[in-house]
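Dear all,

This email documents one entry for the complex benchmark we are building for the journal club exercise. For each entry we list the sequence lines for every component of the assembly. Then comes the predicted three-dimensional structure of the complex as a token string, followed by one or two observations. Please use this as the template for your own entries, and keep the labels exactly as they appear.
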Amino acid sequence: MSKRNIFIFKGLHIVAWIIFVGLCIDAGGLVVNFIFSLYKPEYVQNLYQKLDLSQMYNLNKWVYYGMYGFILAIAMLKATMFYAVIRLISKLNLSKPFSSYVADQITRISYYTLAIGLISNIARQIAKNLQQTGFEVDMLNQFWGDSQAYILMAAVIYVIATIFSRGVEIQNEIDLTV
Amino acid sequence: MSLNELSEKVELTLSNLSILKTGKAKAIRFTTLEAICNALDCQPGDILEYANDDDIRTMNR
């Protein structure tokens, strides 16, 4: 492996860790806020990152729980996905990359990405419908604005995972050729 | 001839010879086949045998 590749991979590893920590803080903040809001409804107007869902909570408590559930699911899935990316980068051996572990991990990342994309898309559609019935959902768009990008990314990652799986099969054949 | 002697003669590692012996090998190079035939003074047909999948499963049991 060239020095340039080693440098890039170390950089990627550090960036992935930074993003992972950021996403964990995000998800953790949202979870803690949600638990607080269950017991003290007055917190609903001042949630994580100045999110104010008091109007939604006052109109219908269950709509608030449902939409917050979507936000939590997306935040947690994003953190889990980046954890999978970190594990992939730390175990990837560039001199012999075609291992079943790497192929499985890339497939897993594609599933996480697809799940994020689908959940974001469903949440966005529901939010759109809720807006027509008088709910204020504009501030929620930041959580699922990029749903289509995630679905497209999932497709690309899945194709890469499939190519990798075939690569693993070929590598096994080569390893068992005497 | 022991496996050690054969591995020295055909310049194959013991692990590769073991792969061949246990039938786990997916393919064999012509150079390897030639070296083994040379070392054992035999023809490829003397060391290769066709068996269908059912026979192999019965043998492995």
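Observations: Residues 3-39 of chain A form the longest helix (37 residues). Chain A has six helices and no strands.
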